[in-house]
Structures are given as structure tokens and as C-alpha cells.
Amino acid sequence: MRDAALVSYPKPGVKVMSNRGVAGIDGTVSTAVGAALAYEEGRTIALMGDLTFLHDASGLLVGTPEPRPRDLTIVVANDDGGGIFELLEQGDPQYAGVFERVFGTPHGMDLAALCAAYRVPHSRVDLHGLAIALADVTSPAGGIRVVEVTTDRAGLRELHAAVRSQL
Ligand SMILES: Cc1ncc(C[n+]2csc(CCOP(=O)(O)OP(=O)(O)O)c2C)c(N)n1
């Protein structure tokens, strides 16, 4: 995600992987599950947007006889649509009239209900709650949990510009 690319720094002991740079949305849940399966010794945390999560939600389905990840947390930044497009040319205020339907693509999905269908534990937290949720080192039941954080697309363009101007 561009947000992470903008403000994060390498940290010793943390291996960072991304699925097709910071722009691909297909197969991201499955990639996270695969990475967690390959990394047996520690925790895996996957950060993705709501459209990315919804696009590959079926990656939460692990076949009955198949190995499951030991400790995967999927953090979904849910801004009800595609925030990335706010940052591109089409996010310019002059296109505001058509932007929301074509690029914003809000969906109003209930992620808790979706996760329940896959029997994957889900919690919805605010930013403070996210720090608490990530500090919990107990392995989730079934090896996968989803932590949803409600975010806001409005103002993202200005926020990125403000952060970039401080770099
Ligand atoms: C299969 C596929 N379809 C469409 C796209 C174009 N695309 C790139 S990012 C994106 C939206 C991402 O939205 P979200 O995951 O909610 O993250 P946000 O931008 O809000 O951080 C889309 C549709 C793509 N990369 N792959």
C-alpha cells in the first residue's frame, strides 16, 4: 500500500514482502496465507485495503486436509473503496462528479459477516485498538484472524502531500 511505502522504515527482524509492488490487488489474501505457511517460526501480519481483501476473500478458505498458517493477522484498512485513486490523476477535485462511482467504488460490505462465513475470527478496532490488537501475541484460533480498521478516503490526497512535503 502506498501509505506504508510513504511512512514506513525497515526494522531489524521484520521481513517485508509485497504482492506485485504496491498496486496489485489479486491474490493478496492467498499470498499472505502462503507467506505465513512458509514462516513457521514467527508471526505474519498482512496489511491490505478493503477492496484487496474483498477481491481475494476466498483465500481465507483453507481446505480441510490442508496445512493452516500458525499465526497470521490480516489487517484490513477499510475506507469503503479505493483510496489509492484519490492520489492519482483521477482524484483531482475537477473529476469529483464521476470519481466516486468509477474509482471510489464504495461497497458497504460487512466484513464481520464475511469472516464469520469462513469461520475466521474478526475484530473491528480504531487506531488505538489496532496497537492493542497487534500487541496480542496469542496465536489466533485456526491460525488466521482479521483485524479491521475503519479509515477515511476523504483528505487522503492532501494528507499524502503534507507528509511528502515533510520528507
Ligand atoms: C485484479 C485487479 N483489478 C483491479 C486493479 C486496480 N486496482 C489497483 S489498486 C485498486 C483498489 C485498492 O483498494 P483497496 O484495497 O481498498 O486499498 P486502498 O486503495 O483503499 O488503500 C484497484 C481496483 C488491480 N490492481 N488488480
Q: What would a concise description of this structure say?
A:
By secondary structure, this protein is an alpha/beta fold. Helix content is 35%, strand content 14%.
Structure, explained:
By secondary structure, the chain is an alpha/beta fold. It has a single domain, classed as Rossmann fold, CATH 3.40.50.970. The protein has seven helices and four strands, in the order H-H-E-H-E-H-H-E-H-E-H. It has helices spanning 2-7, 28-38, 50-55, 96-104, 111-117, 127-135, 156-166, and strands spanning 44-49, 72-78, 122-125, 144-150. The protein has a four-stranded parallel sheet with strand order 1-2-4-3. The longest helix has 11 residues, at 28-38. It is globular and about 50 Å long. Bound molecules: thiamine diphosphate.
Count up the domains: 1
With strands numbered from the N-terminus, the spatial order across the biggest sheet is: 1-2-4-3
| Spatial shape | globular
Q: What percent of residues are in strands? A: 5-15%
Briefly note the CATH topology name.
Answer: Rossmann fold
Q: Termini, distance in Å?
A: 18 Å
Number of DSSP strand runs: 4
The unique ligands bound to this protein are:
thiamine diphosphate
Describe the protein's topology.
Layout: H1 2-7, H2 28-38, E1 44-49, H3 50-55, E2 72-78, H4 96-104, H5 111-117, E3 122-125, H6 127-135, E4 144-150, H7 156-166
Parallel strand pairs: 1-2, 2-4, 3-4
Bound molecules: thiamine diphosphate.
Can you tag this structure with a few keywords?
7 helices; alpha/beta; 14% strand; 167 residues; globular; Rossmann fold
